[in-house]
């Protein structure tokens, strides 16, 4: 094929032959609504009802992290003790949510909170004990006049 002719065709910006549109328009299909309908159908089969006015859901993990849902959609069946929580969940550390979740903590979570507080106190004590000694060695002695010190260095 002729390179000049090929360069001319590329400069036109067409993807096909003469008469085709210059640009291909990509349509974005939103499958979220369809997935939501499927989820609603599955929840209806389980006889779960919507629980409105749920502001947040926190799920405590064994390693001390928390799965936090802000403004989730919650469906429940109280008779069969079944709950479905869906929405955008974030995995957070316990220290990020401590003031707001104290009333939600159970005995297992309180134990992990105690361990967390103990490790925090130990790290704070280690930093407080190590910093004055280390800082004294690194800071040079102060001189009364900076001009005299520079004169002494040059001499």
Describe the structure.
The chain starts with a helix and ends with a helix. It is 47% helix and 19% strand. It is of the alpha+beta class and 155 residues long. The chain has a domain at 47-154: Ubiquitin Ligase Nedd4, Chain: W, CATH 2.20.70.30. The model has no long low-confidence stretch (mean pLDDT 77). Residues 132-155 have a biased composition (Acidic residues). Residues 33-98 form the NAC-A/B domain. One of its GO terms (cellular component) is cytoplasm. Residues 1-24, 121-155 are annotated as: Disordered.
Please write out the topology.
Layout: H1 3-12, H2 32-45, E1 49-51, E2 56-60, E3 65-70, E4 73-77, E5 82-86, E6 89-93, H3 94-101, H4 107-138, H5 146-154
Antiparallel strand pairs: 1-4, 2-3, 3-6, 4-5
N-to-C span: 80 Å
- Strand arrangement within the widest β-sheet reads 1-4-5
Which shape, going by the Cα principal axes? Answer: flat
Instruction: Give the CATH architecture of the domain at 47-154.
Output: Single Sheet
Keywords: Cytoplasm, Nucleus, Protein transport, Transcription, Transcription regulation, Transport
Pfam families: NAC
Domain NAC-A/B: 33-98
GO biological process, one term: protein transport
List keywords for this structure.
155 residues, alpha+beta, Ubiquitin Ligase Nedd4, Chain: W, three-stranded antiparallel beta sheet
In short:
The protein is an alpha+beta fold and 155 residues long. Helices cover 47% and strands 19% of the residues. A 3-stranded antiparallel beta sheet has the order 1-4-5, with no helix packed on it. A 3-stranded antiparallel beta sheet has the order 2-3-6.
């Amino acid at each position: 094929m002729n390179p000049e002719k090929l360069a001319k065709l590329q400069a036109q910006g067409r993807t096909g032959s003469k008469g085709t549109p210059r640009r291909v328009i990509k349509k974005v299909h939103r499958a979220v609504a369809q997935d939501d309908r499927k989820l609603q159908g599955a929840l209806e089969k389980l006889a779960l009802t919507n629980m409105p006015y749920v502001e947040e859901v926190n799920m405590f993990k064994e390693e001390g992290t928390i799965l936090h849902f802000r403004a989730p959609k919650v469906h429940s069946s109280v008779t069969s003790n079944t709950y479905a929580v869906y929405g955008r969940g974030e995995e957070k550390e316990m220290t990020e949510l401590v003031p707001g979740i104290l009333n939600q903590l159970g005995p297992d979570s309180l134990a992990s909170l105690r361990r967390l507080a103990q490790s925090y106190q130990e790290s704070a004590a280690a930093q407080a004990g190590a910093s004055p000694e280390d800082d004294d060695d690194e800071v040079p002695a102060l001189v009364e006049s900076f001009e005299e010190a520079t004169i002494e260095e040059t001499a």
